[in-house]
Specification:
Elements lengths: L1 E3 L5 H13 L4 E3 L7 H7 L7 E3 L5 E3 L1 H9 L13 H29 L8 H24 L11 H16 L10 H11 L2 H4 L12
Parallel strand pairs: 1-2
Antiparallel strand pairs: 1-3, 3-4
Helix pairs in contact: 1-3, 1-6, 4-5, 4-6, 5-7, 6-7
């Protein structure tokens, strides 16, 4: 399989780390949806990162769907999702919060970098910032109440997704969600970023060195 997209995207990075933790072999191509738009379009006309080229050539997209597909492989090392219904419900809630945090962080960045300054819409920016803060407030409460063991053998999809989201937000919108207000998330991120699967897929424009 081939994972397409840059690791400065939390969605691409989430998929890359998940595939490693599941023990599924893949190659990573760091192709930008911006600077190499036409090249990406040749792979996926929708130019959506991440895209996954399956062994039979079919292209999947969206990190949620890619990780769902990966979970179905019988040869995976282990599942990153709980089987107990109540625990799965909690995990999906956390994943939803973290993915929303990613989405709102991206919207803030795009508002500042892609929209002309004279057309910046402050009410929209304030609303998105409020949503971002609400997502991280809920995640902080969750991980403060129920700390997780952060090791390669125990990290689950909810914790993984939260760690990737938090690191991404801290790179780009730390002024909106300062780390000192979220000590549980800061500690979680520090532990996760030290794992080999995370260091093999460093945030930025590099290539995932499959662990």
């Amino acid at each position: 399989m081939q994972l397409i997209g840059m690791l400065d995207s939390p969605y691409v990075r989430r998929a890359a780390i998940s595939l490693q933790l599941l023990g599924l072999p893949f190659e990573h191509q760091s192709i930008s949806v911006f600077s190499t738009f036409d090249r990406f379009r040749e792979i996926n006309p929708l130019v959506k990162a991440p895209s996954l080229i399956c062994d039979d050539g079919m292209v999947l997209m969206d990190s949620i769907l890619i990780t769902q597909y990966a979970e179905a492989f019988p040869q995976k090392k282990r599942s990153l999702l709980p089987t107990d219904l109540a625990e799965l419900q909690r995990a999906l809630r956390i994943i939803g919060l973290a993915m929303t945090a990613c989405e709102k962080s991206v919207q803030i960045v795009y508002e500042h970098t892609l929209r002309p300054a004279e057309k910046l819409h402050q009410p929209w920016l304030s609303r998105v910032s409020l949503q971002l803060s609400a997502a991280y407030k809920a995640l902080e409460e969750e991980f403060e109440k129920r700390p997780r063991a952060v090791t390669s053998a125990t990290i689950d999809q909810a914790t993984l997704t939260t760690a990737v989201a938090w690191h991404f937000s801290q790179q780009l919108v730390a002024d909106v969600v300062p780390a000192d207000r979220y000590p549980a998330l800061a500690a979680l991120s520090k532990a996760a970023e030290a794992l080999p699967e995370f260091t093999a897929a460093p945030y930025g424009d590099g290539i995932c060195r499959v662990h």
